[in-house]
Fold:
Amino acid sequence: MPVPIPDAIALQTNRGVSAEEIKRLAIAAGFDLVGIADPVASAYAQEYRAWLAQGQHGGMKYLEDSVAARTNLSCAFPWVKSVISVAMTYYAREPACASASNGDLPDSSAAVPPADETRSPGRIARYAWGRDYHRVLMGHLRKLQDEVRRVAADDFICRAYVDTGPVHERELAARAGLGWIGKNTLLINPRYGSWFVLGELLTSLPLEFDSAQPDRCGSCTRCIDACPTKALSPYQLNATRCISYHTLENRGDIPDEFHKSMRAAQYILGCDICQTVCPWNHRPLVSENQDFQPQAPAPAVDVQVVRQWRPEDWDRLTRGKAHRRAKLEMWQRTAGILAKQ
Structure:
């Protein structure tokens, strides 16, 4: 038996497991893409440190606090020998009636604007339409863990991550052959595009690694050209100019210079523009998973209604969803910007 490692999971096993068998188990567990990555030190460590030094991460201090682990997994996980990288599409079909309405507050006693008042839609990024993807993916990862436990030969250590912890998910996914990191900084799969959420199982299993795919962005700059706040340069995002950052991470005031662009984009939470314009997203893999189907207030909400939400409205409408990261005052701050004519 291995010596227990804090917060890690030692799996009891009974026979051998190969990389190919793990991939079959991952697909059976509900994942759309899977690959095995070598947990070597990051190839982008120098660029990452420079990005932090320039302050392009904004107020996301947690990115500063975990540089060593993020650029070299062995610093935090000396036992790691392979990373099982998985992806699941969250691209749900647009509802037949997707316009914002006062119906975004069912059974609420909160005040709503007069019927003749001009309504202003506030879009919600597609990843946040349904249940919190952290919970959804973690459930599937636990299922995969159980299956690997059933078939593996020796006791081994495993830790699951979904957009948390000191893990550079996109680099690991690219290294595992799931796609390449595009000019919009997102992982792009050559068949289905970028509408995926990512997860990992860090393991002490010695598995065969997959090969990375070539960069296929070519000379295209559609994502860079379409970004309303000019947050993108090739393969780099300045978070302090990004609508997603300001609506989800920025707890303070949003600089005036971005207000006009935000009103044009109409996103109250997150932003999908750099994905929507990407040519590789012309045939997305559509999710039939009920967890990713739109739930109120997605896919769009009347910003005038949001401005009058009470704490209990915010609590009910965001419970169990990824957009709960934006607190009530953040929703209302952004709604005020979008509502201004």
Summary: The chain has two domains: 9-90+132-203, 102-131+218-339. Residues 133-151 form the longest helix (19 residues). Residues 54 and 261 are 23 Å apart (CA to CA). The two ends are 66 Å apart (CA to CA).
